[in-house]
Amino acid sequence: MEKQKHSSREHTSFLIFSASLRNGSLNTRLAKLAATVIEKHGGTVDFADMADFDCPTFNQDLEVDNYHPEGAEEFRKRILANDAFIISSPEYNGSMPGYLKNIIDWTSRFRPQPFHQHHALLLSASPSMAGGNRGLWALRVPFEHLGTRVYPDMFSLAAAHEAFNEDGSLKNETLAKRFEDNLVAFMNLVEASKHYPCIKKAWVEFLGEKPTKETERVE
Ligand code: FNR
Fold first, then answer.
1. Domain boundary assignment for the chain
2. Which atom number of ligand 1 is nearest to the Cα of residue 161?
3. CB-ligand 1 contact for 91 (6 Å cutoff)
4. CB of 26 closer than 6 A to ligand 1?
5. What global pTM score does this model have?
6. Pair type for strands 149-150 and 155-157
7. Under 8 Å CB-to-CB from 49, ≥6 apart: which residues?
């Protein structure tokens, strides 16, 4: 994909990984395509291998002497080192993979809690016609609970085993444009939040109302 000039775009960096450990994973292909699109639009990519975040099964009894598994330390470090993160996750039985939830649980035990106020975009790929979208709704729950700003638009690639060209791009041009638009919209939000925070801080409780002392909220 051709890299474009972005003189008007401020710097943003993205941790991107596939939540599949499988060789030949469809989600890894989608995560790699997301990385290509982000770089094309001037973002910096930190592409991670999910295996680097691997943690033992969570057990609160292990939490002695401020113990955190290495995988959780690494996940925390990479979240904090970037402006936002993007996960492409498989759907297992209508939900997220168990090991992904396990890593989220371990990483949520640091203080300050690293997911808080970080932006996230959720992607999925599946051979099914729903593209793993139900799994992403499940994945939103712990992240939103932890204060992550989960981007409203999620992208789920249906029939993913037939969706890619040899070079990793999507065969369907309409879908490819939609994927790119979704990522660029997310990049715009992350850029605005990082570089123009005053614009993002105030909001009105109910659309259409004039800001008053009662309806205006400031973070
Ligand atoms: C699946 N798969 C699956 N697919 C789906 O769309 N909805 C589902 O609920 C499930 N459930 C499910 C459970 C388990 C235990 C496995 C192993 C698989 C199929 C899954 O989408 C497919 O294997 C993908 O290829 C997995 O993603 P990766 O590894 O290719 O990225």
1. 2-195
2. 25
3. yes
4. yes
5. 0.90
6. unpaired
7. 17
